Structure formats: C-alpha cells, structure tokens
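Our collaborator T.R. sent over the components below with a one-line note: 'Predict the complex.' Nothing else. No constraints on interfaces, no templates requested, no preferences about which chain binds where. So this is a plain run: every listed entity goes in together, and whatever single assembly comes back becomes the starting point for the next discussion.
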Amino acid sequence: MPTTEIILVFASNADAMIATKALKDAGVAAKMIPKPANVESTANLCLTIDGAIENEAASALSTAGIALGGVVK
Amino acid sequence: MKFSLRTRLLAAIVGAVVLVFVCSLVAARAVLAHDLFSLGRTEVTNEAKAFAGYVASRRDQIQLLVAQEAANDAVRVAVQGHQAGQLAATLSDTVANSGLSFLTAVDLQGRVLARVHAPNGGSLANDPFVQRALNGETFSTIARLSPSFLLSEGLALQAGRQHDGLAIVSATPISDAQDRTIGVLYGGLLLNHSYDLVDEATRAIGGAIALVDDGTIVSSSILAPDGTRYVDAALPAAAAVVRTGRPYVGSDTEGGVTYLARIVPLTTDQGRVVGASWYGIPMVRITSIVSHTTWTLVLWGLLAVILVLALSVPIVQALSKTLVQNSRRVRETAKELGVTIVGSEVSEDHVTATRRAVERSGELIAEIAKSDDAHPKIAELQRLNAALHDDVTVIATLTQEISNRMRDAGVRVAELNEVATTLNELVTGESGT
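Returned assembly:
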C-alpha cells in the first residue's frame, strides 16, 4: 500500500544539508526540495521522506544531534 | 636587522645562562672575598696573640735568668765585696751563654759595680727599673731605653746612635746571706737589630713580624724586594697605634708587599705604651684564592654555556624546523582554499544562469500548453520541467549557502595566511611573500 510523503523542516539551510548527509549515512532515503509555499520555516530548503520511515528518520537525526524543526504531513 | 626565531631562542638561552652565571660569579666572589678577609683577620689576630705569647715567654725567661744570676753565690759575694773584676767576668759568662744584650750589677746606692760590654762606673740611681728593684721588686717588662743608657752599656751602635732602644728588661734585688738587699742585677735584651725573637716566632707561626719603636721598624722578619731584611723603615700605622693605644687590623704595605696586618701596642708591665708589634700575612694569599676561584668559576661557566648550547641547539633546530614546516603547510593550504573559493563563486554564477534558463523554459512550455493544438506530451514535459526547477532551486540555494560560507572562510584564510607569513618570518627571519 503506497504511503504519502512527509516534509521535514529545519531551522536553517545548514541544518537541512547536515540532515541530508546524516540520513544518507543512516540508510534513510530523503530528497532535498525547496520549501513549499504553504510551509512556515526560516530555511529555504527542507527534506521530503516516505511517511512510513518517519520514525527511522527521526531516530537517525536524533543520533546525529540534529534538531528537527517540524514535520509537515 | 631581523633575527630568526632560532637565533633569538639561542640568544635568550645563552643570555639567561650568562646572566645567571655572572650574578652567581659576582655573588660568589664577593662572599668569598668577604669570608676570606674575615678569616684572614681572625688569623692575624690569633697569630699576633701567639707572637705576644712568645714575647711574654721570652720576658719570663729573662726574668728567670736574671733572678737565678742574682742568687748566684759568686755574684752575691762579689757585690758584697765590691769585686768589680770578678763580677764582670761572671756576668760576661752569663751573657755569653744566654744571649742577653746587657747585664749590669749596681750597689745599694745605685752605683754601677760591673758591666759586660762597657767600662764600669757611673750611676743608675735614677733609673726607674733599678729603683724598683732596690725597693725589693723583681720584675720584667718591655721597655724603651734611652740613648744615654744605651751608650753607657755599649749598645748605642746596635740601637742606632741618638736613638731609643726597644728592649725586654728585668731587674731583681741582690741579697746577702741575711736576706738584706745589697744591690741590684739589671739585664735585658735589646730588640733593635736583634732578629732571634722575630725569626724564631716567624718559623713557628708563619707570616711576617716586626717590632716598631717610635714609628720605625727596629726588628723584623719582613723581606725587602732585594731579599734583605726590611728594617729602619717608617711604619705610620704603628705610630697611630702607639698614639691611640688601639690595635689596628687591615691592609698595610711593607717592603713592596701588601699584607693583611694586625698592629698591637707593646706595653710595659705598668701599662705604658712604648712601641708596637706588627704581624702580617701576604694579602696575595687571600687574593690568589679569590682569583683562582673566580677563574675556576669562569671556566666552569664557559663549559656550562657550551653544554647549554650543545643541548639547546638541536632542540631549537627541531622546534623551529617543525614550525617552519607547519607554517609552510598553512600557507599552501591557504593558497588551495583560495582557489576553492574562486571556484565556488564561479559555480554560483553558472547555477544562477541555469536556474534562469529552466525558469524561461518553464514559461515557454506553459505558453505552448495554452494553445489548442498542443502536443499530447506537453503535460509530461511541464511536470519534468517543474521537477527540474525544484532541483535547480535546491542546487542554487545550496550553492549560495556554500558560497556565503566560502566568503567567510576566505576572510579566515586571509588571516591564516597572514599568521603563517608572520610565523615563517619569525622562525626563519626571511620576509614572507
């Protein structure tokens, strides 16, 4: 059954970049996209992941010490 | 003129060692000189006392000799019988065997009965020592003998004409069988130009000794530069001691040699100052130790400097070599980073141009899509272009982010490069470019 994609928001573009690397190292598939117009964030970039792996992504980011600004579903 | 870090480090190390060494040397020299002079003062004071003991011993010896002679039956009989010839012969034998300078017998009225080195006759009734003996006193003392007395005793030549004589004298009453005083026996040792006492004492206690009368050396074991005995010379410091009655300790030059000397007043048995005794040790004994120690310390100090240099040069070389290598590495890294920064700026320009092209492409596709005869795949092209636009937007954002950070890094690299240049200049002394 296909799942919807969710958007991970960060406090800065730098955090988004580091998060991309951390998720890649943890084996979590993520794609960097421009911030959608309907999403509130100070950063211009955010990540989109499969909603089914949200917990794995959150765990990987926590392990890497990266603060997640928010999740848009 | 700029010096390299290694030159400055070595100079600082050597400078510190030399400074510590010089301070230690000055302190050691000062303390050594002070302590040696204190020791020298103690030595001359003790040896001067030892010489005073010699003089006292000789005085006691003379008193014993005169007293024994006065108790001699031959003398007593000759005095009682006024047998001048017999008396003179007896006294001559005694003088010959004892080393006395004079030995004179007087009767109860102070008339001279017999002399050894001069014709008989005359009176010693006014002589204070004869008077004391006639009053029953036996004594010995250091004394100053008048020129007239010395002349009458045939000792004027030894003392120096028209000059007082410094002597150890003793007088004792001569008694008859009933223990009544019948005369006086008066004898003594003239110290002027008599060297047995000073030579004997010098052999026993070392140093040099002089006896001073009226500010002039009358007997001494001091050697003049030509090797002769140093006598009949003025000794002003002794004149001051005789005048004040206070001993002197300090530097004194006699016969061309500087001594650490102690001068003490010579007093009669009744406490009157009549002369002075001088005892000295050559100052060179002290200064040579100070000089020898100083030179030894200088040699050891030079050795220490050489050892410090031998130990510190390799350390400083290794340290400066590491610094040079690191500063060069920093400069090379800074140069590479500079190229990276330029590359980043160029990339940003290209990404911006690409983004504009994709946006323009999107606009054109949208215009085509509005027409009625649009290609059936135009909708797919629009989605593809939208995805491409998103990717280009992400790349543009990332490139700008990196470019901003690169500009910050550029400032830091410039500072780092300046630090590396300064470090290189500091270490090698060469101007960096």
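Summary for T.R.: Chain A has two helices and four strands.
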